[in-house]
Amino acid sequence: MIEVRNVSKAYGSQKVVHDVSVKIKRGKITSFIGPNGAGKSTLLGMITRLLGRDSGEVYIDGKELDSWESSELAKVIAILKQSNHLNIRLSVRDLVAFGRFPHSNGKLTKEDNEKIEQALAYMKLEDLQNKFLDQLSGGQRQRAFIAMVLAQDTEYIFLDEPLNNLDMKHSVQIMKILRKITDELGKTVILVIHDINFASCYSDEIVALQNGEVVVRGEVDEIIQAPVLSDIYDMKFNIQEVNNKKICVYF
Question: For the chain, what is the HEC assignment?
Answer without folding.
Answer: CEEEEEEEEEECCEEEEEEEEEEECCCCEEEEECCCCCCHHHHHHHHCCCCCCCEEEEEECCEEHHHCCHHHHCCCEEEECCCCCCCCCCEHHHHHHHCCHHHHCCCCCHHHHHHHHHHHHHCCCHHHCCCEHHHCCHHHHHHHHHHHHHHHCCCEEEEECCCCCCCHHHHHHHHHHHHHHHHHHCCEEEEECCCHHHHHHHCCEEEEEECCEEEEEEEHHHHCCHHHHHHHHCCCCEEEEECCEEEEECC
